[in-house]
Design goal:
Number of strands: 23
Largest sheet: 14 strands, antiparallel, barrel
Length: 410
Amino acid sequence: MTGAIRWPLTIVGAVLLSSTALTLLQAQSGTTGGLAAVVDVGASRIHYDGYLPSGVLDLAPSIRLDAPNAVLVARGSLARFESGNINSQGALMGGLFSPARGIFRGEIASSGSLGYHQSIGSTGLIQVNGRLHAVMPGGGFWAGAGLGWSALGGGLGAGMTTFELGGWLRRAVGGDGSLRATGLVRATEVGAVRYSEASAAIRWTAARAELGLDGGVRSGDRALGSGAERGWLSADAALWVMPRLAVVAAAGNFLADPTTSAIGGGYASVGLRWALRRPARDELPRVLLPRNLGRTEGWQDATVPAPGGAPTPSSNAESLLVEEGGEGRVTLRFTLPGANSAQVMGDFTDWLPVSLERDAAGRWAVTLALPAGVHRVNLRTDDGPWRSPPGLTAVDDGFGGKVGLLVVRR
């Protein structure tokens, strides 16, 4: 496909898809509790290839909105180098998903980014991708292709084509942790430059800590560099010292980016992360997946008790009592006859299982920090299938299962 044809098709597709995603998310995010927002503030030491090392102060906000069949992500960064130079970048990504057909699910996504670098001028990138996902218990894979356009230095730039194949695995670790591994092979053509990349990432996430490792290799046209410039490796960590505040650190190297003419280098950084609501980590790198696509078990409807007073442990029906306390704390008390163990997970736990404990009355209870609004939550007993909790409205989660809606009014 020639650049003259690819350019208008990509622009029109990206604008339509992003607008549709934003409209859907504005209509649905208020009832799904799918908002996450974080701001990173930190100091870095960056060594670009061919330049002296430089100190950098940076600010990086990001917002993610999830609906059952759509997702929208906005990210930005502002960096001030010790030389006084200022670099800025912004990106907007939206994805729409088809209803599930067995294990298969379609995705169409668009993304656009703008940047200004005093060394190379302004840059822009816009792309539309189509993907087919196969989702199975604990893992899955996807295949896709994309069209795009890269504008460099304010000029017309060049057309871009990508083909990709990837896979992922997710496993629970301990009582509140999860381990996710992903792999991706991608072939890219930008103008007259062609190259391929193979990458892998592993991430461990728990209630108070996160660790990640990401690396890969590149092969292709010599115009992209050689030797050490053909591979990259990076690591990052976050420790949540408060419910909304984390200490973060990262280090590694990065390759030159042919789509924006950015040069490669190495870095080390440390900073603070403030979260309006902690983001889920179930989305896959470079792929816009809804947060709960990676769940490893099925769902089933719960028994809803008859209306009346507070549940009692002797009742033969399952039920739920919600107690809202001070400082944003909410206690969930479940009557679960015959259960030997119980766990809950939801958007407020980043879809990580949280174990319940028996209270003095024999009910299964847990106290959590929940902001006001509507939250999605699932329950399981005795390590069985995840299901909508008793007494909550069960709705379609967009993946062929059910999830309960928990309202916190405060």
